[in-house]
Amino acid sequence: MQFSNISAGALVVALIAAAGTDTVYAQQEDMSFFVTSAGSGKGANLGGLEGADAHCRSLAEAAGSKRTNWRAYLSTTAPGGEAGVNARDRIGKGPWTNAKGVVVAINVQDLHSDSNKISKQTALTEKGDVIPGRGDAVNTHDMLTGSDPSGNYSTAGGDTTCSNWTSSGEGSAIVGHHDRLGLKDTRHMRSWNSAHGTAGCSQDKLKSTGGAGLFYCFAAN
Q1: Looking at the 3D structure of the chain, how many domains does it have?
Q2: Which residues of 57-83 are buried (b: 16+ CB within 10 A; e: fewer)?
Q3: Could you tell me the CA-to-CA distances from 176 to 39, 96, 144 in Å, in that order?
Q4: CA 96 from chain center: how many Å?
Q5: Largest CB tally within 10 Å, which of 70, 83, 137, 210?
Q6: Looking at 6-10, 106-110, 117-121, which range is the least confident one?
């Protein structure tokens, strides 16, 4: 930053602005939790878990994160009653901090308890932006998870993961509400990770129930 030919007052303002920018960058470097600022563009077809993880890494890297082991908070199911993959088992041990330096949970147990700090104000994008929720002009509070409230794959029956995150047509996926709000003030509607199923797997179907194909990302390292 060049400071020649600048008044003392302007210099102070410039230094404060520079310090603020450095703080933001430092927080984003240390960030270990965010909501994707954009989905795949293909509805719930994320390219499976591998594609979803890659999307997390790409967004985090673009935002200045130095972490590399990013995992999408997504569960999958398996045919024939075999065990699926649990979202809670993919994301490391914690603690997890958002792009503003706020700790949303200290460990896996805390994350899946009533004491976690996930809300509209803390479930920020990798850029530190707030995601619109219920009551805003455009509601995109649905977060793809495919999970039950404990963060495990669902045993409810039927498609709960849009064919394990490969479908952009038929099927359904369980979503959570990042703002903890819904049509009714019930336990499910207040759930950040297991509120309801989607009307389908396409981008338009996700939008119809308050979503945009967004999901949670956690750093496992």
Answers
A1: 1
A2: bebbeebbbebeebbbbbbbbeeeeee
A3: 15, 18, 7
A4: 12
A5: 70
A6: 6-10
